[in-house]
Amino acid sequence: MHKDIATPVRTKEILQKHGFSFKKSLGQNFLIDPNILRNITEYGGLTKATGTIEIGPGIGALTEHLARSSKKVLAFEIDQRLLPILEDTLSPYDNVKVIHQDILKADVRDIVEEEFKDIEDIMVVANLPYYVTTPIIIKLLTERLPLRGIVVMLQKEVADRIGAKPGTKEYGSLSIAIQYYTKAETVMVVPKTVFMPQPNVDSAVIRLTLHKKPIVEVKDEEFFFQVTRASFAQRRKTILNNLTSQLPNGKAMKEEILTTLEQLNIDPTRRGETLSIEEFASLSNALYSIITKE
Ligand code: SAM
After folding, report:
1. Which of 135, 157, 275, 281 could lock 216 by a disulfide, CB 3.0 to 4.6 Å apart?
2. Which of 79, 90, 188 to mutate to test the pocket of ligand 1 (most atoms within 8 A of CB)?
């Protein structure tokens, strides 16, 4: 076994050797605690049959742990300056492929199909760049990649919103979008001291396990998400007011929206944050039927 990249001493050595300086705009906060990396890797439940996708390998601190536990690792890195460093630090591992692409622009589905041809178990494990955590997770889920799950480090505040239950102030359209696709759990809360440089916010690791069957039947996913976003547009407004002011043609449909809510036994004076995913699904299905005159 090789010496870990992620000790403060070795990380400093690597950065110095290559004259690397952190770019704040790319969310570069590297992990310098091997225990945290071991824990993240364990939460991934990786085996020698797993294909693991990493977003933002940095200098390879997490990547080497993933390489030791997986069959193959695909690591997407946007910063060209890190490529020669990764070539150096990851030279002991022959099962890692670094892809120099912005994860938000990459055709991940195509790349995964090509690179993980003979692999059935696919996981995403990463310490995400915090300026784009939500778009990355949404992209991985809406593109319907054949994933078993996602284990990622992100801002604790975002982790709280992702896992939130109805009736709490953290519950919103993000909680619903993620819980529609996955079972979401916060598995670790992580202090700032394990990063170099230290971020300004607290961090957490979440585990998202993809549902094998959808937890609710939705006629049109895009419309379902539109209804949930509309319902939270102004948190202090009632569900009826938010829907009429936010949905296209909402004002003209006020009477129909009111009748639909009453038929579904959803009090129109309730606020969006009190509705369960099941209630949002029946509401959006009923409104969708009206709009499409099904
Ligand atoms: N995995 C390393 C670690 O844990 O020490 C680095 C994590 S650091 C929080 C985030 C990494 O994501 C950086 O290496 C950064 O350059 C990279 N990154 C930022 N935006 C990206 C994007 N859109 N696509 C791919 N990589 C990105």
Report:
1. 281
2. 79
Q: What is the CA radius of gyration of the chain?
A: 22
Residues 135/141, Cβ–Cβ less than 8 Å = no
* CA 18, 19, 22, 23 torsion-angle sign: negative
Give the contacts of 150 (CB within 8 A, at least 6 positions apart): 123, 124, 125, 137, 140, 182, 206, 207, 208
Ligand 1 site, residue 20, Cβ cutoff 6 A: no
SS3 for 119? coil
C-alpha 154 to ligand 1 mean position (Å): 12
> Distances in Å between the alpha carbon of 172 and those of 125, 165, 193, 208, 217?
25, 9, 30, 17, 19
Angstrom distance (rounded) from CA 14 to CA 19: 8
Residue type, position 97, single letter: K
DSSP letter string, 146-193: --SEEEEEEEHHHHHHHTPPTTSTT-SHHHHHHHHHEEEEEEEEE-GG
What's the pTM value of the predicted model, to 2 decimals?
0.96
pLDDT of residue 85: 98
Q: In which element (H, E) is residue 204 found?
A: strand 203-210
Q: Which of 193, 199, 157, 153 is nearest to 22 (CA)?
A: 199
**Distance (Å) from CA 157 to ligand 1 centroid:** 19
Mind listing the domains of the chain with CATH numbers? 8-210 (3.40.50.150), 221-292 (1.10.8.100)
For 95-142, what is each residue's pLDDT tens digit? 999 999 999 999 999 999 999 999 999 999 999 999 999 999 999 999
Q: How far out from the chain centre does Cα 251 lie?
A: 34
Mutational pocket test of ligand 1: of 18, 24, 28, 203, the residue with most ligand atoms within 8 Å of the beta carbon: 28
Give the pair of three-digit tokens for residue 74: 């695909």
